[in-house]
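Researcher: I need the complex structure. Ligand is manganese (II) ion. Inputs:
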Amino acid sequence: MSKNQQKEIHQLLEKPAKIVLVGHQNPDGDAIGSTLGLAIYLQQDGHQVQVIVPNDFPQFLKWLPQAENILIYESKTDDAKHFIADADILFILDFNATHRAGQVNEALNDFRGIKVMIDHHQQPSDYADLVISDTSMSSTCEMVYHFIGSKNPNAVNRDIATCLYLGIMTDTGSFKFSITTSTTHRVAAQLIEKGAPNTKIHQLVYDTNRLESLKLLGRALQNLKIVSHLNTAYIILSQEDLDACNYQKGDTEGIVNYALSLQDVVFAAIFIERKNEGLIKISLRSKSDFDVNLFSRNHFGGGGHKNAAGGKSDISLIETECHFLSVIEDYKNELT
Ligand code: 5GP
Ligand code: MN
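Model: Output:
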């Protein structure tokens, strides 16, 4: 299912406006890349812009152009509320239902201006007035590139190209997930031509580990379990594991992919205990046709894409593991 009101959105942007761009809770490369990339474009076009995210984002994204101007709702709530209430237009990028904005949810629901959504997740809600939704897209960054390109491809400068390249790279697992198309590669090539320093972006995101984050990966691999009759592997990280490795935001990003990298494994999960939030954060990944978006919606109150989804659990780690082990038995046909 897709919806494309890009013409109407360009019309809306013909007059200078106050615009707030919002990314989702626990912002990833695509959320930060798409909000910053579009914000820089809109700024060039004469608008007043402000990027707001619900909570802090990983260090490996902080070097992006204008990342220092992002307002973090959790720590600057009054300022952020003021920007939202005062805006003419609100862009929500890389998420499709307001609850994905965590604490910002309430301010989004109270907003009375024009709401625009650009997103590639499954089952979009009807929150926004104008929508570009396409679940076949690799990333919201790729969609933002097409959106800008449909008006003026020359507007994409080095800074915009850098932000958008980063989000495409992270959301496609460096161009390897099945959502990566020939068009994705063409867009990436054009972004490099427009100045995106591709090797440097890769290094700044993937080769800036702290020793402690690698030690956490070591623990995760020690904790990996395999359910061989269901071609499933999963990893558990307790609060104790995180504390022992001086956990910082972003340290667990991508660890679930090690479980999926096992031969014959088609379904992988990671369960991360977050005692201060009173929940277990879950990431689900699959190869082939096994739909983790549906699985998460059915059992772990989340969603996402067919091959990558998130979810949560508010029972204990051990109970969550038991629940997971019991429900996957019902998917024997799909998993084997
Ligand atoms: P991650 O496991 O990295 O948190 O999320 C994987 C993908 O699923 C990302 O695209 C993320 O935005 C999306 N996602 C994570 N949690 C949720 C959720 O609760 N609902 C929906 N609709 N998408 C989610
Ligand atoms: Mn995305």
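Model: Summary of the prediction. The domain at 211-335 is CATH 3.10.310.30 (Diaminopimelate Epimerase; Chain A, domain 1).
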